[in-house]
Amino acid sequence: CFCLFISNLAANSKIKIQLIDLTGRILNSREFTAVNGENLFSLPLTGLSKGIYTIIVENGDVKRQSRISVD
């Protein structure tokens, strides 16, 4: 699984995490409600082919993007 640790979140913040392949297709999308302080979110990677994928994390107006490699 892909695990993401985020600290300094306000309680009840809405977090959206998307897993996207190189063609732009959304393979998995999850929404979470944060607790005050430290949070750990996970997204399963089972069944994915080897390759490079994009993870997008959204929190309100803040949007972060990074790439991960599945071996």
Give a brief outline of the structure:
The protein has 71 residues and is an all-beta fold. The protein is built from no helices and six strands. A hairpin with a 2-residue loop joins β5 (51-59) and β6 (62-70).
Helix content: under 10%
Instruction: Give me the secondary-structure category.
Output: mainly beta
Count of helical segments? 0
Q: Write down the oligomeric state.
A: single chain
Order of helices and strands: EEEEEE
Residue stretches low in confidence (pLDDT < 50, at least 5 long) are none
Beta-strand segment tally: 6
Shape: elongated
β-strand percent reads over 45%
Radius of gyration: 12 Å
Strand order of the largest sheet: 3-2-5-6
Mean pLDDT: 91
Distance between the ends: 12 Å
Tell me about the largest β-sheet.
Answer: 4 strands, antiparallel
Set out the fold topology:
Layout: E1 2-9, E2 14-20, E3 26-33, E4 37-43, E5 51-59, E6 62-70
Antiparallel strand pairs: 1-4, 2-3, 2-5, 5-6
Structural features, described:
This protein has strands at residues 2-9, 14-20, 26-33, 37-43, 51-59, 62-70. It is elongated, with a radius of gyration of 12 Å. It is built from no helices and six strands. The chain has a four-stranded antiparallel beta sheet with strand order 3-2-5-6, with no helix packed on it. A two-stranded antiparallel ribbon has the order 1-4. It is mainly β.
Essential attributes:
elongated, 71 residues, mainly beta, single chain
